[in-house]
Structure formats: C-alpha cells, structure tokens
Design a protein that fits this description.
- By secondary structure, this protein is of the alpha/beta class.
- It has a domain of 191 residues: Rossmann fold (3-Layer(aba) Sandwich), CATH 3.40.50.
- It has 13 helices and ten strands.
- The strands form two sheets. Strands 5-4-6-3-7-8-9-10 form an eight-stranded mixed sheet, sandwiched between helices. Strands 1-2 form a two-stranded antiparallel ribbon.
- β8, α12 and β9 form a beta-alpha-beta unit.
- α2 packs parallel to α13 and α9 runs parallel beside α10.
- Bound molecules: guanosine-5'-triphosphate.
- This is Signal recognition particle receptor FtsY.
- It comes from Rhodopirellula sallentina SM41.
- Belongs to the GTP-binding SRP family. FtsY subfamily.
C-alpha cells in the first residue's frame, strides 16, 4: 500500500513540486488520492523546507562557492536546524566534502547531493504495514499524550477501509473517555466495528476482546489504541508489555505491528520517545504525525539512524485523508526542492 508515490523524474530536474511529484500512472482511486497527497506532503513540509532549503540557498549569495572548511561548517549548522541531528548532518557534510572539496560549486549541485544522501539514509523506509499470513493483522498504536494516536488510527483505518480491507478498532485508551468517543466517531465515519471497555477498564482486556472480535468476524486488521504515556513512566511502559502479552495469548505472534506515533513538532524530544518506547514496547515502525505544522521534519533521519525504526506513515493534517505512506524519495525532494 503506497499512496504517496515517488516521482519518476530525472536526476537533474528542478521541478515544480506539486506537479512533478505526480504519479507516473494515473487513474486508480489510490493514485488520485496519491496526487492530492503529493501536493499536501510538499505543503506539509513547507516549514521544514523553509528552514533547510532557504538556509542552504542563503549560502550561495554569489554564483558559486568554494567548498572549504568554512563552507562545510556553515552547511552543517544549517542542516541541524531541522533537527536531523549531528550524525545524519555529518554524513551529508562528508559526502559534500568528498565530492566537491576545493572546487567551486553551484547551489543545484549541493542540493542534489544532499537530496541523494537523505534518500540513501532513508532508503529502507517505506509505508507498508506488516501483514499476517492469515488475518487478522494486529496493529498496536502507542505514544505519548496528544501525539496524534487516535487521529492517526482514524486516518489509517479510513485508508485501509477505502482499499477494501475490513477492520475492527479497539479503544484501548480506557483512561480518557474522550479518546473512546473520538475513536467511536472515527469508526462510525468509516463504518467499521469498534470494541470499547468501561471507563477505567483494563486496556489489556480491551485489546484481547478486539483481537477476539476481529477473529470472530474474519476482519483483515485489528487496530488497537492505547492511552498516552511518557516513556519515563515505567509502570505504564510495563502495561504496554502486558497488553502485548495478552494479544499474543489470543493470537500467537501478534501484534504484527507496534506503531509509535511521534509528534513531528517535538523535534529532538521525539528521539527520546523513540528510545523509551522502542525498548519497552518493541515498536516496529513510526507514524510521524503533525508534519504539516513542523519545521523539524529532519527528525526522521536520526530516528532511522539510531533505532532502525522505519517511518511508515506521515500525518499531514486532521482530516480523514491527511495521511501518506512514507516514501524516502518524495520526502527528500519535498524537503529540499521548492
Ligand atoms: N495538524 C495536525 N494535527 C494533528 C495531526 N494528527 C493529530 N492532530 C491533532 O493533534 C491533537 C491530538 O491528537 P489525538 O489523536 O487526540 O492524540 P492522542 O495521541 O490520541 O492523544 P491522547 O489520547 O491524549 O494521548 C488533535 O487536536 C488532533 O486533531 C496531524 O497530522 N496534523
């Protein structure tokens, strides 16, 4: 499932982002949705691009620039302003140094090199969910309070449903009544079943019943929400492990995906969240929500570098269709080419 497709243009193109990112083949509902999302992703990354693209352009006040230590230092400082962290920024600096040191370069050459390097650092990321050989595929969704879990579940469910998959949602955030209501509204919009527990019920029992229901009705996916928690709250982290264990008891091998929803506006804080959650909850992938409101989209890079956690989806707004499957090529292009 990829509804944010990579563009197929030549290496030297400097395209208008909205049109040039259009899918190579058009026609299917999937792809029509994709082309809308492509301009959305470019729009979503606008803030990050403003920091990165504009900053890098500013390095080139004159025609070309000599690539020396001064230039490389300035480049590095500008890269890390997007919260991409020192490791990934260093790799980009080294690549630029390797290719151009001692030479006068033009903006386009440097942008091209940076884009390629970002692509290659993220090349293993893609927006695909794991799939259980015999349904249901169980997806557990975790993250800190307010990161966008419930909204992301709604958007993901909408996408799966629109593509012919049946699903059951589990309102595992039994702590916050509004979260249950919110998920119930999403289920109503999508037209899928939802399992809820009483307020304060054991979330593990809701998770168990959700998987049970999905098996009973033969659903393709069971998607289970959880209450927001801080990665430092060890009792609540243990609760996630219990939820996992109980799910596995009902369906051995499940959950097949544990998606960590990170708020893109959190920048470097998202890194400590990724660390705490991936250790305690065995996360398999990231949903980077609220990319539309963030200038820190570069944070995708250190998360991949440090935790080998692929970004699977990005959230680009609060509406039902405001989510895109992650694609490194489109991401790198949208980040730099404006
Ligand atoms: N702009 C924007 N807003 C988003 C996105 N995803 C979620 N939001 C908003 O972020 C806020 C929090 O989203 P929720 O889905 O309620 O977050 P949550 O993680 O379930 O929250 P808790 O249950 O309190 O932990 C809401 O106002 C959402 O509408 C996104 O991709 N873009």
């Amino acid at each position: 499932m990829a509804f944010w497709r990579s563009k197929k243009t030549s290496e030297t193109d400097e395209p208008n982002e909205a049109s040039a990112n259009a899918p190579s083949v058009s026609g299917s509902a999937d792809e029509q949705q994709g082309s809308g999302l492509l301009s959305k992703i470019a729009g979503g990354l606008q803030k990050t691009r403003r920091v990165l693209g504009t900053d890098i352009r500013d390095l080139f006040k004159s025609e070309g620039r000599l690539v020396d230590d001064d230039f490389l230092g300035e480049l590095f400082a500008r890269l890390i302003r997007t919260d991409m962290g020192t490791g990934p920024a260093n790799k980009i600096r080294e690549e630029v140094a390797k290719q151009y040191r001692g030479r006068v370069v033009h903006l386009e050459e440097v942008i091209q090199t940076i884009t390629q390097e970002i692509r290659s650092q993220l090349s293993q990321d893609h927006g695909e969910l794991a799939k259980n050989d015999s349904p249901p595929t169980v997806v557990l969704v975790v993250g800190v309070n307010g990161s966008g879990k419930t909204t992301s579940i709604g958007k993901l469910s909408h996408y799966l449903h629109a593509n012919g998959h049946s699903l059951v949602l589990g309102a595992g955030d039994t702590f916050r009544a509004a979260a249950v209501e919110q998920l119930t509204i999403w289920a109503g919009r999508i037209g899928c079943e939802i399992v809820t527990g009483k307020s304060g019920a054991d979330p593990a029992s809701v998770a168990y019943q959700t998987v049970d229901k999905a098996i009973e009705v033969g659903a393709d996916y069971a998607i289970i929400d959880t209450a927001g928690r801080l990665q430092t709250q060890s009792n609540l982290m243990q609760e996630l492990q219990k939820i996992r264990k109980v799910i596995d008891k009902r369906l051995p091998g499940a959950p097949h995906e544990v998606l960590l929803v990170l708020d893109a506006t959190a920048g470097q804080n998202a890194i400590s969240q990724a660390k705490g959650f991936s250790e305690a909850a065995g996360c398999t992938g990231i949903v980077l929500a609220k990319l539309d409101g963030s200038a820190k989209g570069g944070v995708v890079l250190p998360i991949r570098e440090q935790f080998q956690l692929p970004v699977k989806f990005v959230g680009l707004g609060e509406g039902m269709e405001d989510m895109a499957a992650f694609d490194p090529d489109s991401f790198a292009d949208a980040l730099l080419k404006g």
